[in-house]
Structure formats: C-alpha cells, structure tokens
Design goal:
The complex is a heterodimer of chains A (190) and B (184). Chain A is of the alpha+beta class and 190 residues long. Chain A contains five helices and six strands, in the order H-E-H-H-E-H-E-E-E-E-H. Chain A folds into two domains: 31 residues; 157 residues, no CATH class. A six-stranded antiparallel β-sheet of chain A has the order 1-2-6-5-4-3. Chain B has one domain. The chains are: A alpha+beta (190), B alpha+beta (184). Chains A and B meet through strand 1 and helix 2 of A and helix 4, strand 3 and helix 5 of B.
Amino acid sequence: MKTLFQTSLKFAAVMLLLIGGAAITTHAQGARLQIDQLDSLANKASETVDVKLDERLMQTTAKFFSGKDPDDAEIREVLKGVKGIYVKRFEFEREGEYSQADLESIRSQFRNPGWNRIVSVGSKKEISIEVYLMQNGDQIEGMAVLATGAKELTVVNIIGPVDLNKLSKLEGNFGVPPVGDAIREREKKK
Amino acid sequence: MKRKQVMRMVLAVTLLTALVSPATAKGDDFDAVVKAIEQFYHVKHQSLPLLARAGMKGARTVARVRGGDYKRIADAGSVRLVFFEDQEFNSQGRIAGFKASIQNALNEAWSPLIATLSAKDEEQTYIYIRDAGAKFHVLVVTIERREATVVEATLAPAVLATLMKDPGEMGKTLTDEAAMNDPK
C-alpha cells in the first residue's frame, strides 16, 4: 500500500513537472513567429538571407564574446536572456514580387495577445518599418521587426527580454540587418 | 536446435544493428547531403584522389590541416570535404526547392543556422550545426554556378562564436580554411 502511495506521489510529481514544463515552453514560444511560409519567395528574390539562432546556440556563443573588447562586451550584455534570433531577408530586382498575402501571414500573428506595435515609420515610396513588442506585464518576452520596401522584405524576430536601447549593438551581428538606421533617420527628420 | 537457431538470428540481427547504426547515425548525413545535391542538380561529385592525380593546379583539393592560417580548423579536429567542379548548377527557378531538399536530407539533430541564396547567380551557402558534446559539428554547403563544396568540421564553441559574429561570411571562411590549394 505504501509502495503504491509512493509510486502515485512520484507519478503526480512527474506529471506536475511535465505540465509545468509544457506551460513554460508554450509561454516562452509565444514570441516566436512562424516565418518559414516566406521561404518560397527565395525563388523570386535576387538575394535571400535566412538566420536561425536558437537558445542553446545563443547562450553557448554569447559566453565567448570577450569582455576585453568593448563591442563584444556590449553584445554579450544585449544577448543576456535572449533565447533566439530569427531573420529572413529578401531583396528583389523588381517591384511587386511579394504579395499582401505574404505580409498578412506575418502581420496576422501580431494580432495575437501580447503583441503591441511600438514603432511604425516609412511610406509607400520608402522602406516601411514596423517594430512590435511582446509583453507580459512589464516583462518583454520578444520583439519583431517587419521592414518592407518595394524591392525588399525583412522579418527579424528576437525571443526573450530585449533592451531596446542596446538593440543597435546587434545590428550587423548574427545576421541582424541595420533596420535601426531607418528609424534613427526618420527621427532626425522629425 | 530451434533455440540455437533463434539465438543465432538474434545475434546476427544485433551485430547487424551494431554495424549499421553508427554508420547511419554518423554517416551519414554528410553523404545524404552530397546525394541530395547530385539528385537535384544532376551533377556528380569528384573524389579528391582523382583530382589530385589529375594534377589540377590551383584547384582546392584536400583539407590538409596544418598550422598557421589553418590552425583554427586544425584545433577543431576532423574535416570532411567534397567538391563538385566544372559542372552546371541551375535550379531553374526552384532554388527554394533545393533548400528544402537539403533540409530533408539531414536528420533533426542538425539545426539550420544560416542560408544565403542568390537565385540570379545560383550562389548559395547553407550552414547547419549539430551538438557534439563540448563541441559542435558544422556542415557547410556552398553552391556556385559551376562548382559546389560540402564541408563538415568539428568546431570548439569559441571558434564558432568568432565565426558567428558574421554568419554571412562564416560559410566562406570555413570552406576556405578547410580547402586549400594543393602546393604540389
């Protein structure tokens, strides 16, 4: 009887752990966008870049950014807590190579709870940049940048807490394009 | 007698499994990727000894690991390398299909790190990473209009971190360091 009770307790503990783990995973993956549906655009694009850095790879490599080099130290600081960086960038020779449906497949995900658009700059003639944050209370759980132009489309998805003030340190590293330049230029014009 | 036969059969199956499993697990995703390239582009890889015998001066032939410029890979351990030279690589507007076929050739242990594609020039670089305990296995596929390279190397995390600062250049750096001109 005692053995049965102990076994039941162990089973319950394992189940609780499994359920808890699943809940945490679901929550953490909330900021992860589905972007692989854009892959077929590579057939029409003149240049395609597709970067996938998952949590383990991020944390393993982050440790090796030397504290001696100021740039490396800043990158390491930004990467603290980041669980993944995913980038898809397409450049086209002609206009109109991607469709509104392609954009909608991304934008529709921002209508899910937790996502808020914090920046929207640009016009039809220029590159438009939209920055979205996923928040859970005060906690930032991820961010996304959607940059669209007549001949280009870029999606950046960063999972985990991101310090927006230090985000520029990631530009040009890990495949993250310098999308912040456009925002800063736009702010200067204002 | 019947029991003996059963035991023999079990032993034979166990031996076969033991022999086949490591080859399949280790083996061979590298070979599977080479085959995927051959099937998609209708090309054939060239064996390195054949290239060397042909005395193709200037051809990137073999991963002869030595010090100096090539120390980073040498520290990392083993390197596997296959070349496709002087053959037509034309995806006929289906470059995304090739990306998918490479992905399908690899088992789930490999994580795609970066893919850069230029449909117009047929230039493509794919980098996949697989956990190898304290180190990482890195698989790099480079395709150009007339040639292609497949490199598999084992890298220490510190080396990987250095290369990852610029993922776009990572494939080129790895391939260049794995492949070197035959000095003879």
